[in-house]
């Protein structure tokens, strides 16, 4: 039987492990536990971690670990590494050669060109303990396979920030003044002064899309060029923006206002093809776009159409959906008003030395069995605990994803997680909390979140997290859990509970995670795939109309439930969909008679 969750306001002031007067136990977290709130647990975690990382002995006869480097790494990093490891540098390996070479390595250091696939981990057969990525993005590393094989992946998230920002500024200037085209023309022996008249940057409006590490550095520099800087980032702090003299705006405001755009958001399901026909249609005619983020945030064909129509005057691209891209038939490469660079954002001598040192420090720490703040995945939980919590891990991540997807433009300030468990305060919530944070943060940042870095990342973003554990009855380790966010506003007003917070609750049945409550409404949804949510009046005809609208776009429905009516005559209907619902269809659904509001959960779970 489920014990109802206590009110948050009362328990947020409790401290970890403090018994409440009712005999329940609560755990509130206002700073990361990893750094000492639970020293005993932390020691255990470290032991588990060390055992996992150092499960096999080093591969060289002198007992020092062997580290294979497959891409050009800054010399200071290589020299530092040589002090504690046997270094093997082998550049330009084929996949088969890498699979062979990896058998003799304890660690591997790469940039973005080496594809660290499942086959690499299979070939290493558990002997590869650490993969170091000398840069931010780890999309070239199969993280699932790494974790399965007990291999820690670390990256270098900060040392190339300035380089990426500087490249953004370089492209911005080149774009405004046709530098690349004019240079090419002179190389061809021409003197075409009239053809390459540019536009000025001063007093123009630059919209920074994604105001994180790189975006804010671009903003700072653009202010120095005399530009008016605005930023769209639903999760950015108002204070940070104000301190830099940058105004935070909504997506549509940015589109309507900016003369220049500089893209700096991460590649996530939420940002994929964010710059599509709809977005270009809302832009000021003649806008210019710089992309130093990831190729996939732009719909290439839509940008080509916008360039053809003159809506976008020019674009500068450093990144591509596929790298290297296929030149033949590419809609953008080679156009007179598109300039391109081969993913050079991080390619300065200084940044490469910086990332080399940053990644080597992390690799050496990991090989020594220490916790690394740069860990991207970390199999720190004992296998039996992991097995027991596995279905709840999926639930926790799904609740985090669902909650953050319900947040409106203004973002949110704090997270509350409530667990109802027969174990009460003995429930080890670290993994579940980390997964909630992962679900939330991976929708909004480039960082890969795990048990090691979840609390630190949340804290570094200024998010307050509180946890409450309520003792419940029952057989399973967890009866239910909920996530609530202190958000200004929700995209789906029914998701806001009586206390004004975005609230989602779920449970696990027969090993499968289910969402059981959204705001004040009971629902019963398997946490998987994409789900269309509608709040509607209880009246006939709505289901059929929505079904037809989806069928019109060939969107297959895989399930449909209507939530029990909780208030008045309203209900929440959920429809599982197999493919993307186009924006205009979503809008049409919102206008169906009797539908009060609608929203879409994207890729909630596996
Ligand atoms: N071209 C290159 O060589 C390099 C590219 N990068 C790329 O630059 C981008 C930014 O990196 P960092 O600043 O280090 O990451 P970050 O995590 O510090 O910043 C990303 C920002 O985007 C915001 N964001 C998330 N979802 C958003 C959305 N839907 N709309 C607008 N903003 C959203 C986040 O709140 C965060 O503030 C990433 O895409 C990364 O892959 C980074 C380094 C080098
Ligand atoms: O750090 C990143 O995410 C980058 O995009 C830089 O990639 P690179 O190391 O230059 O291949």
TrEMBL record:
Record keywords: Acetylation, Amino-acid biosynthesis, NAD, Oxidoreductase, Phosphoprotein, Serine biosynthesis
Region (Disordered): 1-25
Catalytic activity: (2R)-3-phosphoglycerate + NAD(+) = 3-phosphooxypyruvate + NADH + H(+)
EC code: 1.1.1.95
Residue ranges occupied by any ACT domain in the UniProt entry: 531-606
Gene Ontology BP, a term: L-serine biosynthetic process
One Pfam entry name: PGDH_inter
Xref: CDD domains: ACT_3PGDH-xct, PGDH_4
Pathway in which the depicted protein is active: Amino-acid biosynthesis; L-serine biosynthesis; L-serine from 3-phospho-D-glycerate: step 1/3
Membrane-spanning parts: none
GO molecular function: NAD binding; phosphoglycerate dehydrogenase activity
Listed PROSITE patterns: ACT, D_2_HYDROXYACID_DH_1, D_2_HYDROXYACID_DH_2, D_2_HYDROXYACID_DH_3
One term under GO cellular component: plastid
Biased composition (Polar residues): 10-23
PANTHER family (UniProt xref): D-3-PHOSPHOGLYCERATE DEHYDROGENASE, FORMATE DEHYDROGENASE 1
Subunit organization: Homotetramer.
Family: Belongs to the D-isomer specific 2-hydroxyacid dehydrogenase family.
Protein name: D-3-phosphoglycerate dehydrogenase
Organism for this UniProt entry: Raphidocelis subcapitata
